[in-house]
Write a structure and sequence with these properties.
about 80% helix, elongated, about 190 residues, mainly alpha, 2 domains
Amino acid sequence: MSNHNALIVGAVVVCAVIVLLLVMRQQRSKKLRRRFGPEYEHAVEEYGSATKAEDSLRAREKRVSALNIHSLPSADRLRFADQWHEIQSRFVDDPGVSIERADKLVCEIMNARGYPMTEFESRAEDLSVDHPHVVRNYRAGHAIAMRRDASTEELRRALVYYRDLCDELLEAHIMEPLSKERTSRV
């Protein structure tokens, strides 16, 4: 084989490797975008580039995979669900206190499930790994809960955000059979 042919073969191999790496990167990006949904876009906006955002999302996955996050026993799910219903029922009388209690209850549920109770944004990032579609609700509800001048309508919206988050954390899709079981025993 002549030097000229060797150079051509080498250039083709290098191009093939580059194309393969680009395709693999694109597939990884698609996978992360599917997995994290709206949280992917939030991370891109926060970090200013897809590469940095994807590095952060993969780091979150790795960090959370090392945690002992678990489902709650039925009795705990029912207890937390009862506390949530109590918070909702008191909203009309004192919306501000209800939202403060909702924020605290979400933290209690997360703690009981094994999420580390670090500063807020770290909790939100950890939550985003398993619940990427409601972490936006968590951020929005928490932002409203931290404001002292929130309107009743904003507090109502926060209550809805926290409800959706509680449903996810309490695995409400499992709760319905438990509720039926509980009422049949009464």
